[in-house]
Amino acid sequence: MRKIIVFRLGLTAAAPIFLADGAYAQVIDNYFPAIGSGAGELAQEPAQVRAMGAYTPLGKRYGPLRIDADGSESEGYASNVDRNVGGHSSAVVSTQGNLSAVSRWGKRDQVHGNINVDDIRYPSRSIQNRTNWTANLGGVHDFGHDTIGVSYTHLSLVQMPTDLGALIVNRPVPYQVDDGRLSYTATTHGRLSIIPQVDVQRYHFDYFTPTANQPSQGYRDRVLVTEGVTAQYELRGNSHVLLVMQGTEIRYQNPLENAPSRDSNGASVMAGYDFGMRGPLRFRALVGYQTRRYRASAYGSINSPMAEAELSWVPTRLTTATLSVRHGIEDSAFENVVGYTFTGARIGVTHTYQRNIVFSAYGQIQKANYPSAPAFLQNTVLYQEHNNQTFYGVGAEVQWLINRHMRLSANYDFSSQNTVGSGQFPIHTFLVGFHLSL
């Protein structure tokens, strides 16, 4: 299942204040590190954030400990809150809060925690009301030459019918993700670093009353174990070459009745290059090949090239443009299709005017290609021919930074997308928000 999220360059190190419901991306990727990176690391603030020193929230400091908190209230209108053909319109009320803490000491030692709550209400369509929350703990210990990183993340989210790989349901489907990661970075006396790591994820879908067209989602409960090793060689400065090898085991907890096991084993090999920051440009990319073989011969196997790339351009301290692309294999929510290939690209531009007026815009496209259902489902209601699903989205936002603690925002998002078996349908979302920071 792949979730689509509005692409927006945040103004703080925390998550964006509000993610408009009309356009979504792989939400899981927003909480977990990029392929080949270690566990427990903290993301660096972009140059644009550092440049707006007079408007950057300071948080509270107690010795080595820094605490940050923020909250927002956004209201507006969405033309299709069901995210489906013929869906209902409604006013939107979104409330979000975030609390984070980080403590640093020594050269690279740090421990951090974060909790975020996002509540969305539709007064005219209460069946679509939902609350997401996430929590994360992580840290890094420096041994003087090597480092060890560990992190744990809990996500309480919902699936919508426009999520790529999702079922066409008329209400949010809540699910939980627990993720634990451990990595060790061994640095040689030369320029080579070796990073072995392991990641364990558990997916659990909450119960809702099934119907003939909407079965209980318990069959999607699964555990994913990914083991990998990354070899990183420093060419010069912060420029690196990467080689990443990974193995993945997926085990489903509640098999579908009278259906083959969906369990699978997979492997991938990728080579990459991180250009680092050279003047106004930064480029990094990983390309390789991925395979997934299912325990049941009825499902066969999926083989696909995989790639991740990102190009950032910072022509001034107040302007940032980013282009990113991704292609690979994802898990499906359908009973009759266990996996599919995903391709996505997005571009975003953010510009700060006079240091306290921030303009941003984005555009994105995401596409899922589903294989035909296995032969044993022919002549049944579950059989499906090769199919695809496409999402297009654009949007713009303006923020007025009143001071370090308050800001106002207004944004508009448009998407055109289809659920499996339907034509394209547009969704418009308008929001105005007020934000407070510690």
UniProtKB/TrEMBL annotation:
Residues 1-25 form the signal peptide. It comes from the Bacteria. It holds the Pfam family BBP2_2. InterPro entries: BBP2_2 (IPR018759). Keywords: Signal. This is Outer membrane insertion signal domain protein.
